[in-house]
Design a protein that fits this description.
- The protein has helices at residues 2-23, 29-49, 55-78, 84-103.
- The protein is an all-alpha fold and 104 residues long.
- The two termini are 14 Å apart.
- This is Guanidinium exporter.
- The chain crosses the membrane at residues 29-47, 59-78, 84-103.
- Pfam families: Multi_Drug_Res (PF00893).
- It is a multi-pass membrane protein.
């Protein structure tokens, strides 16, 4: 169950990062509220996962999922560059996440 919490925490991290972008520096009310609510949910889910997953592993996986998802959505939603090197390094983050899961 802890790994499910951690995966959901990573997904919610993506959600608050995207909402933060849409909030324009907390100047738009609905995206700002969304970012804060989803941040709290993300931290709660991370805390639940920490009951049985070591903090170093959990934090690395949580941020890795957030990095990958936010970067991919940045490419899709905000026309950020999708260069070969950028995609390669995102792939390396994925390898790291999988490696951490396999070695736990």
């Amino acid at each position: 169950m802890a790994w499910i919490y951690l995966f959901l925490a990573g997904l919610t991290e993506i959600g608050w990062a995207i909402a933060l972008k849409y909030s324009h520096g907390f100047s738009r009310l609905l995206p700002s509220i969304t970012a804060i609510v989803v941040m709290v949910a993300s931290f709660f889910l991370l805390a639940q996962s920490l009951k049985s997953i070591p903090i170093g592993t959990a934090y690395a996986v949580w941020t890795g999922i957030g990095i990958m998802g936010t970067a991919i959505l940045g490419i899709i939603l905000f026309n950020e560059p999708a260069s070969l090197l950028r995609l390669l390094f995102l792939g390396l983050i994925l390898v790291g996440i999988i490696g951490l899961k396999l070695t736990y």
